[in-house]
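hey so u asked for the seq, here:
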Amino acid sequence: MNGCSSSLFRAIAAFACLWASTPAQALSCTTVGASGSVGFTIAVASNFNAPTLSLATAYADSQGYKITVCQDSSGNLYNAIIPSNGPQYALFFSADTTRPALISTNYPTLVAASPANYAKGIPVFLLSPSAYAAASGNYRAVSYLTTGLTAGANAQRSDSTLPAVTNHVKVRRAPSSPPVSSLAIGNPSLAPYGVAAGWVLGSDSVAYPDNMGLWASGANVANAGTNVTASCAGFVTGSQWICEYDNIDYTLQAITNNRVTAGFVAYAQVCPTWAGSAYPLDQYVLFPGYNTTQAYVQLNVSDATTQARATAFLAYLGIGTGSWNSWLTSHCYQSL
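ran it, structure tokens below
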């Protein structure tokens, strides 16, 4: 495990590894729109990729040009943007508030407009398909949680049609049955949802006193990087049981590939609005009390037309308005 990921406390408190010396990996980009050339490019944290693609597609089709959307962890996107915004991203939608603020403070010439919050994301505990199939009952994800604790993470059922979840829960570890023998999270130094997973597991007993108490100062975590095909068991040693991945999309892939028993991802990745019926409602449990506030920043680009198009897109979204907040709550996010 590298030094950047050995302690979640360092990732949360100091972001010591935020500007790692290693180059950012190639981002995953999709171009949407029915016609025309690319009008501008958006860098977006993985959790908000599906919503951005949907919003950008509708807008691009109405404008007669295309929009490119590139997704990765907030940390990798940050490293791709600084120090010069060489790829010419017009907008950066992060999964935290820290990185947009750092760009604005440390690289003010890159910034066209001050950062602003756009959403509050909700972490979820998600079972792998194999774990889901092995469980029974009408809320299978809860089978892997100890419920009814006087202290523990404050959970919430994923849908009102399902049986209520006793608020305070804890991940079952051996010798409990069925146990979560391995768990996937996003790398906290790169992915804000990995930080949120740490809060749920117990990395911060001051700001989040009602959590699971399962985080042992990072000693139980191994770094799986981008490898979503190898079992987490191949990365962990000794008392380790958690594998962290370079972004929350890789984290989801590791879970769906049955490389772990379960993991923590974003609600927007699994909710019916964006995932359809891919994830049954009883395959996951919500943790809305550990939400991560997400901010965006508009960046300077060299072409005036591109800049104007990005500005118009932001106006179209209406971030911060009542209609935007209604959109958030109906699309698997908390309102601002």
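Residues 1-24 have pLDDT under 50 and may be disordered. The longest strand covers residues 111-121.
lmk if thats what u needed
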